[in-house]
Each structure stands twice: as structure tokens, then as C-alpha cells.
Design a protein that fits this description.
The protein is of the alpha/beta class. The protein is 43% helix and 14% strand. The chain has helices at residues 2-7, 22-32, 45-51, 63-70, 81-87, 113-125, 142-150, 173-178, 191-205, 218-249, 253-261, 282-295, 299-326, 354-364, 377-383, 397-401, 421-426, 443-449; strands at residues 11-16, 36-41, 75-78, 90-93, 130-134, 159-163, 183-187, 213-217, 335-339, 368-372, 391-393, 406-409, 433-436, 452-455. The strands form 3 sheets. A 6-stranded parallel sheet has the order 3-2-1-4-5-6, sandwiched between helices. Strand 1 (11-16), helix 2 (22-32) and strand 2 (36-41) form a beta-alpha-beta unit. Helix 10 runs parallel beside helix 13 (299-326), helix 12 runs antiparallel to helix 13 and helix 13 (299-326) packs across helix 14. The protein is elongated, with a radius of gyration of 24 Å. Bound molecules: nicotinamide-adenine-dinucleotide and uridine-5'-diphosphate-glucuronic acid (UGA). Uridine-5'-diphosphate-glucuronic acid binds at residues 137, 166-170, 229, 232, 236, 270-272, 274, 277-279, 281-282, 343-344.
Length: 464
């Protein structure tokens, strides 16, 4: 019965890589195109099991609802990569492209091993021509390498490679996928390239207005993805660099951001100062851009973009230094409650979270840590598994804060705006401190309660 159903679909789409992007983006295609069959495969069987279970592999608001609606109908998760490559006509490649941590380009270039293996798998198992779509973020000109691999042996079978980078952000992935600012499709401007482009465009046109579907050549598409992330991260570093100046001059970074951002040419978004950007992509994509610039001999351009990452690191170092300074130059034996470990609100993802660096530094100062987060405690425990020192994980923020000397807000969960800080204050060791690394706590109110309050880019409010 299932085999029959499987054959009746209008289009058969495969995604290789069932991660943070592959899962949600394919779920959205399946949701919007019930007459298309969408299969997502991965080498990681645990991940596939999770996709097929009630407990999805990560938390993303709204995702569970869509998965429940389409899974088993036109959305399938499988580890059978070989057969799925054979059966499908359109293949999205959405494997991880982390920063290389070995050999040439170590700590800068993108590690293309997963992507290359995938290209070879597609070549090996294909029995008919296919459209292969780069959805993962790749260095400009990667499609050329993919084409070279795909055209290396089979004469009759043709592969058309497209670039279709993903712009969704975690925590808002479902809304971003459903109402994107744009969808970008890069193709060759040949007859077959344009045909493949049309085929992919038709998928997105099911729910996205044509005016939002941008087309370009492949190289522009690949590069635009890196540049979009670099520009976003640059905004965060720009406002964070100014937050340091605010702290020296009694200016308030939120007021500065509002005054600057109301200029339409600048815009209001992405001007929240904090402990710096985290997540699996900003740093890796900028480093990749820096590496590419150096490769092409553009050292000044490389240095410009590298400074975005340096300011991000500086911001975290500044935060730790301010904590040490305000808590009388010693954290040894002090109990510190970390509010939030995810790299941003509304996700369980902790990849490259500023919390990892900050908690490790606090542990090296011999502080005792109690880590609280509504969704990310499992990942936090894995991230800190090798760290030496005293760490506890307690989800309930009131329990976590009990007996602590300081609260340190590292993730902008809205929950932390609404805590009963009076109740928390009563249970803490005095003098009690708040270090708000996300500028979400009501400073005046907490100061009035009795806390010594330190925020980013704002004058400290202290009773000491
Ligand atoms: P991820 O690590 O969550 O998922 C990648 C998956 O690919 C993993 O589950 C891995 O097991 C699988 N995989 C690797 N090699 C494979 C192979 N040969 N065959 C089958 N499966 C294989 O990564 P992610 O966060 O989903 O990111 C994927 C890509 O999308 C990256 O290039 C990233 O830069 C880009 N991107 C990510 C986001 C995001 O919000 N996470 C947003 C836009 C773009
Ligand atoms: C980012 C981009 O926003 C997506 O468009 C892109 O597709 C994705 O990277 C990717 O390629 O992986 P994401 O990293 O999921 O998405 O989340 P963002 O909302 O961009 O936040 C990134 C980091 O910047 C977070 O740590 C966040 O707290 C921080 N940030 C963001 C600030 O510190 N201040 C801000 O004003 C905005």
C-alpha cells in the first residue's frame, strides 16, 4: 500500500542531512506541497530515530506541529541513503560544513569532507539524471567542485547543480521558512540550468510570492549566503563595540541603538548589545569568508571581516573581567547561577554559545556554577562534560538561584524578563549581583530590590 502511495506523488524530493536546517526546511516543503513526497536521510541513525519519534532531535517552536501533520504521509525520515538517492529526482544537500580543525586552513576554512562524501554518494547510487541543490552554506565556487565530481564517470546521467542557501534562523525557523524575506536560487544560465531553476522555483511558488524568489548565477548565490551572515554578525559586533564606549561614558547602549536604528537606512533590527553572537554559523561563515579573501590575496578585506570575530571575543572577555572586578576580584568558591545556556532564546542549540566560553572562564576562576535553562540543559551538560570544577544543572531558576552570590543572564529567554526577582533576591547570598549579558532584566526594579546590577553598555546600578 505504502509503495503504491509513494509512487503517486507529483515530485520526489530527497534531502541529505537531517539537521537543524534539513529537518525544518523539508518539513515546510512537505507541509506546503502535500502532493510531493519528501524524504530526509542521515548517516546518524539516532537522529533519524528521533525524527521518527515523539521527541524530535531539538526544540524549535512550531516544528512538532508540522512534523505531526506530515510525517508518514508525505514526509519520511530514513537512513537508507543509497535507495533514496536512486528513487528521488531532486536532491537537497544539507550536511554540516563546520570550520576545519586540521591541516591546511585549520580554524578558518570550511571542512568540506561531509559535502564531498555526499557528492560521491550521489554519483555512485544514481541511476537517472537529477537536480542537486546545495542548501548547506559553502565557499563560493563549491558548486564547480560538485559538478566536477558528479560529471566524473556516468556519461548518460546528467546532474544539474543549483545553489539555494537557507536563511532561516533557529528559534524562528518555522516563521522564517513560511514567510521568508527572500528565497535565493543560483543556477547556470544555460538551457538545462534555467530548466532546473524553474523546477525549484515551482516548489517555492506553492507558498512564496514570485517577487520574493530571487535568482542569480551560482557563484553570487553561494557568496550571498556568506555575506548575509557576515553583515548580520557585523551589526552585532558594531553595537557591541559601542557598548564598551557607553560603559566608559555613561551613555546607554539601548538609547544609542534606538536613536541610530530609527534611521531607515540603518534599521532597528539586530542592534541588541550583549555577550556576543553564538550559534553554529556566524563565526564559521565569517572565518570562511576571511579564508577566501586571503586565498585571493585580499588581505585588507580579510582583516576587516576578521575584526568582527575579534570584537565578539573581546565582548566576552570584557564581560568576565567586569564580573571579576565587581565581585571584589575573586570568584573562588562563589556560587553563581547561570540563567540560560542556549546560544539564543527559543532553541535547545548550544553550538558556539557564548555561555560555553563564559562558564569555562568562571570555572577556571574556581567559581561554583549552577546552570539553568528551559531547553538546553542536556546540551549544556555535554558541552561542559570535560570541564573541571563544580557544576550543577537545575532547570527551575528559583531553585538554581538559591544561595548564589550572583545571577548571570546569558540567554535572552523571555522567561527571564518575568521572574520574581524579589523572591530570588531573598534566597541569595548578600551582597547579591546580577550580570545581565542580554540586557533583558529590569535594572531599576532589581536595583530597588537590593541587587547590584551590571548590564552591557549601561551605567552600573550598585549599592556598594
Ligand atoms: P547539522 O549538523 O544539524 O546537520 C547536518 C546533518 O548532516 C547531520 O545530522 C549529519 O549527520 C548529516 N550528514 C553529514 N554527512 C552526511 C552524509 N554523508 N550523508 C548523510 N548525512 C550526513 O547542521 P545544520 O545546522 O543543519 O547545518 C547544515 C548546513 O546548513 C550548514 O552548512 C550550515 O552552515 C547551514 N545553515 C544552518 C542554519 C542553522 O540555523 N543551523 C541556517 C542556515 C544555513
Ligand atoms: C543566523 C542568521 O540570522 C540566519 O539568517 C542564518 O540562516 C543562520 O544564522 C545560519 O546561517 O545559520 P541564527 O544563528 O540561528 O541565524 O540566529 P540569529 O538570530 O542570527 O542569532 C545569532 C546570534 O547573534 C545569537 O547568539 C544572538 O543572541 C546574537 N544576536 C542577535 C545578538 O547578540 N544581538 C542581536 O541584535 C541579534
Amino acid at each position: 500500500m505504502e509503495t503504491k502511495n509513494r509512487m503517486n506523488f507529483k515530485k520526489k524530493i530527497l534531502c541529505i542531512g537531517a539537521g537543524y536546517v534539513g529537518g525544518p526546511s523539508m518539513a515546510m516543503i512537505a507541509f506546503k506541497c502535500p502532493d510531493y513526497r519528501v524524504t530526509v536521510v542521515d548517516v546518524n541513525s539516532e537522529r533519524i530515530d528521533a525524527w521518527n519519534s515523539p521527541q524530535l532531535p531539538f526544540y524549535e517552536p512550531g516544528l512538532e506541529d508540522i512534523i505531526k501533520k506530515r510525517r508518514g504521509k508525505n514526509l519520511f525520515f530514513s537512513t537508507d541513503i543509497e535507495n533514496q538517492i536512486r528513487e528521488n529526482d531532486i536532491i537537497f544537500v544539507c550536511v554540516n560544513t563546520p570550520t576545519k580543525n586540521y591541516g591546511a586552513g585549520a580554524h578558518m576554512a570550511a571542512d568540506l569532507q561531509y559535502w564531498e562524501k555526499t557528492a560521491r554518494q550521489i554519483l555512485k547510487h544514481s541511476r537517472s539524471s537529477k537536480i542537486v541543490i546545495e542548501k548547506c552554506t559553502l565557499p563560493v565556487k563549491t558548486a564547480l567542485a560538485m559538478e566536477k565530481i558528479l560529471s566524473s564517470s556516468r556519461g548518460k546521467i546528467k546532474f544539474e547543480v543549483l545553489s539555494n542557501p537557507e536563511f532561516m534562523a533557529e528559534g524562528s525557523a518555522i516563521n522564517d521558512l513560511e514567510n521568508p524575506d527572500r528565497v535565493l536560487i543560483g543556477s547556470h544560465e544555460t538551457k538545462s540550468g534555467l530548466k532546473a531553476r524553474t523546477e525549484l522555483t515551482e516548489i517555492y511558488q506553492r507558498w512564496i510570492p514570485s517577487s520574493k524568489i530571487i535568482t542569480s548565477n551560482i557563484w553570487s548565490s553561494e557568496l550571498s549566503k556568506l555575506v548575509a551572515n557576515a553583515f548580520l554578525a557585523q551589526r552585532v559586533s558594531s553595537i557591541n563595540s559601542i557598548s564598551a564606549l557607553c560603559e566608559k561614558t555613561d551613555a546607554d547602549i539601548s538609547e544609542v541603538a534606538r536613536a541610530v536604528g530609527t534611521d531607515d537606512r540603518i534599521g532597528r533590527k539586530f542592534l541588541n548589545a550583549g555577550i556576543g553572537f553564538g550559534g553554529s554559523c556566524f563565526k564559521k561563515d565569517i572565518l570562511n569568508l576571511v579564508y577566501l579573501c586571503r586565498h585571493y590575496g585580499l588581505d585588507e578585506v580579510a582583516a576587516y571581516w576578521e575584526s568582527v570575530v575579534k570584537i565578539n571575543e573581546y565582548q566576552q572577555q570584557r564581560f568576565i573581567a567586569a564580573m571579576l572586578h565587581s565581585m571584589f576580584h575573586t570568584l573562588a568558591g562563589k556560587r553563581i547561577c547561570i540563567l540560560g545556556f542556549a546560544f539564543k532564546a527559543d532553541t535547545s542549540d548550544t553550538r558556539e554559545s557564548p555561555a560555553i566560553y563564559i562558564t569555562q572562564k568562571l570555572l577556571s576562576e574556581k567559581a561554583e556554577l549552577v546552570i539553568s535553562d528551559p531547553r538546553a540543559l542536556k546540551n549544556a551538560a555535554a558541552d561542559l562534560s570535560g570541564a573541571e570544577g563544580n557544576v550543577q544543572f537545575i532547570e527551575d531558576p528559583y531553585e538554581a538561584a538559591r544561595g548564589c552570590h550572583a545571577l548571570v543572564v546569558l540567554t535572552d529567554w523571555s522567561l527571564y524578563r518575568m521572574l520574581d526577582y524579589k523572591k530570588i533576591y531573598r534566597s541569595m547570598t548578600k551582597p547579591a549581583f546580577i550580570f545581565d549579558g542580554r540586557n533583558i532584566v529590569d535594572r531599576e526594579k532589581c536595583f530597588a530590590i537590593g541587587f547590584n546590577v551590571y548590564a552591557i553598555g549601561k551605567p552600573a546600578l550598585t549599592h556598594l
